Structures are given as structure tokens and as C-alpha cells.
Amino acid sequence: MENQIRIILPKKYDLVVGDTFQLYYRGVIEAPNPYVYSIVSICDKGRNFPRYFEYVPTEPGQHKLTMKVYDAQRNLLGEAETLLNVVAPKAPEKTTNILVIGDSLTGGGHWINEARRRIVETEGEPAGLGFENAIKFVGSNKGYYADSRNEGYGGWHIDSFLYNVPGAMWIECPNSRTPEDHHSIWQDVNGALWQLETLQIDYLKFNRYKDHTSPRPEHGPLTHYANAADTSPIEFTHSSNAGGSPFLNPETGKIDFTDYCKRNNIDGIDAVYIFLGGNGLMGTEAATLPRKEYCQIVVNKTKKLVGYIKEAFPNVKVKIMGQTMRSLNGGIGSNYGAQLPFTDVYEIHYYCNELDLAYEAWCLEDAYKDFMEFINISGQFDCEYAYPYKEKPVNTRSTVTERMDIDGAHPTKDGYKQIGDAVYRNIIASFCCE
């Protein structure tokens, strides 16, 4: 009966003295419902609670954590180990320029802002360290925060950064849509399908559904095709291209990070955090290939991007961030309806695990291990309480309500802060510790 359940733990987690670390079982135990089993965490530090392991370190050091899963007859179903690497923060002597590459989870800058706040400011909860010149986030995208620049764009995947693929579009219109409408599908006047990705006050961004190459419509309406809560037509009189890869040299048409830095007045890149992999599942490759094979294709393409970065900045450190587990409580249904692959919520979790394993294996390869590192996010992200929700009647004849998520992929601000916490710990361990 051994190893019937996989526990997806990384080689290590970074922890910081005085910072509360919580490792959520739902993010690392591969089972439709891990709580029907006996979950045991064993460590010389910390505490084992029903949903997570918790440790608030008071001094630097390293501690082995062993996690075990048993069935009702005490048969061992799965076991894994990780290292808790605790560091004490210390203000660095020089500033680290950090470039973040990602999708909609990055573009707004929410988690970047929290990681930055905790390092360079003193206000807030938990209180920041006040290392004013420790880090600087660079990039052409401002997001919602002036000091949390990045290269994150809604709906993008690795191909979006490598190639000059047909882009998304922005439309200008009064926006009354809600997170329930995220990823809903709309049809333009020419019959092409577009997927709603980004909601702003007076603008909406749409990606090409299943990467079609039809011309961008110049005007509306867009009529509802699938999965929206608000199905009324979207009227607009103007649209614009969302742009291509920011790393393409406009003169040569090739990826060129030296030119990219010159165009954006960036005086070098010391570290790159890559947070990709959540998009692309509806593409041709993803639909026809086994998950492991598709994940390896994603890794191989990302290797190309890292190669371009390393060529421009030989001393760069590259961090590959793992996946956030998607909504377990209705968000997937709210955004994607009942269409595969998204309607199979557990299969999406399985994909996230496979991609995490592929990412970490890559970072441990001999040619990469000296300058690359994998950061597990799923274990540090409380996916059960991280997404927007509403109170919905338990059935059509009842006034009793239950909590139901209304967004399957985009967290609340509290959820983004947990991603920021994970990156904060890694930045401290990598660039700001004794």
C-alpha cells in the first residue's frame, strides 16, 4: 500500500527568523480530499495542525520535516521529506535588481508589492524590515504600484515571451463585469472567440481563445458564448493590440535582454523570478499530449528564455516559482463552466504538481543548479481561503447559504500576500541574510 499518495515537497523551504511559516497540506498532498486520511508532520520544531504545519523560528538553522499520510488502518500511503532552511535577515551592502516574468497573477504587482514592502519598508503587518535599498523591481509594466515593476501579462504563457505570436486586445468600455466573468468566452462580429482575461475600470482585455489568428475586431459588440455571469453584450467602438513580447528587439525581431534593458533604462539584472505555467492548457499541445510530456515541453521552452537571460547577464540568479493551486470550492466552475480540462479540478491540481516536479528537476540539473532555484508556492498558499467568494443558497429552494468561490485562478489580495510571503522568504535567504 506504500506510496499510493504522492506528497509533493521541494528539497527545501526558506524561512526567516520571526516570520510565521505555514505549510498547507491541501497544496502538497495529491489527493482529491487529503483530509480523509491521517496526516502527520514530524519535525524537531513547529506544530502539526489539521490543515497545516506551522513554525515561527527564533534563530537560524536547518530542520528536517517529514510528512506522512496514513489510511484508517494505519497503512502508510505516502511519505516525503523537506528541509526547513531558517535564516536571519541582514541589510545587504548593495541593491539587487529583480526582474519578474509572469502572467495575470504577476501583472498587477500585488504579490510583488507585498514582498517589497516586507523588505524595504517598516510599516504594515507584519512589520517590514526597513532595508530601504536592498532590492529594486525592474520592468516596463507598472501594475498598480509604482515600485513593483514587472513583465507580467494576463493570459500569457512561455510562448508569449519567446515569439511574436498574435496578441491579445484591449477594448475601452464602461466595465460592470466581476470576477465571476473572468475567463468567460465571447464572440466578435466576425465569429472569432475571445476569452476575457483582465478587468479594469474602463477597459477589458481579451485573449484569443485557443490561440486563433483571426484579425482583431475594430468595434463591437462582443456577444456571450460561454461561462459569464453577466451575459449582456459588450459594446465598444475602439480596440487596440495588447502588444508582443517586451524582450523582442524591435529592429532584429529577436530576444535581446541587453536591448530590453537599454530601452527601459535598467542598469542590469541581478535576479529573475519566473512565475509561469498557469496558462496554455487550452492550446493544441496541452490538449493532445500526456501531462508529463507537456510539462517537459514547457520546461524546454523556458530553458530558451533563461538562456537568453544568462547570455546577457552571466552572473544572474534565476528563480523558478511553482504553481498556486486553483480554487477548490466552485471558482473553476464559475469561470470555466463544465468544459475539459478545467472542469476536472483534481486533474488541474495533478498538472500543477507535474509542472512543479519538472521545474525542480530542471533547477537541479548540473548545467543549471549553480544559478537556478525552484520555489514551491503551493505549500505556502492557502488555496481553500485565497479566492474571491460569495454566499450562495445551498439549493434553489433554500434560504440557507454556503460559501462559493467566484474566481478559479485570481486570488484575493490576501491570497496574493501569501505569494509575496513565499518570495519574501526566498529573497531574504538569497540576498539579505547573515
Walk me through what this model shows.
The chain is of the alpha/beta class and 434 residues long. It folds into 3 domains: 12-87, Immunoglobulins (Immunoglobulin-like), CATH 2.60.40; 96-162 and 245-377 and 387-411, 3-Layer(aba) Sandwich (Rossmann fold); 169-241, no CATH class. 23% of the residues lie in helices and 24% in strands. The strands form 5 sheets. Strands 8, 9, 10, 17, 18 and 19 form a 6-stranded parallel sheet that branches. Strands 15-12-13-14-11-16 form a 6-stranded antiparallel sheet, with no helix packed on it. Strands 1-7-6-3 form a 4-stranded mixed sheet. Strand 12 (185-187) and strand 13 (193-199) form a beta hairpin. Helix 2 (110-120) crosses helix 9 (413-431) and helix 6 crosses helix 8 (345-363). The chain starts with 11 loop residues before the first strand and ends with a helix. 45% of the residues are buried. The mean pLDDT is 93.
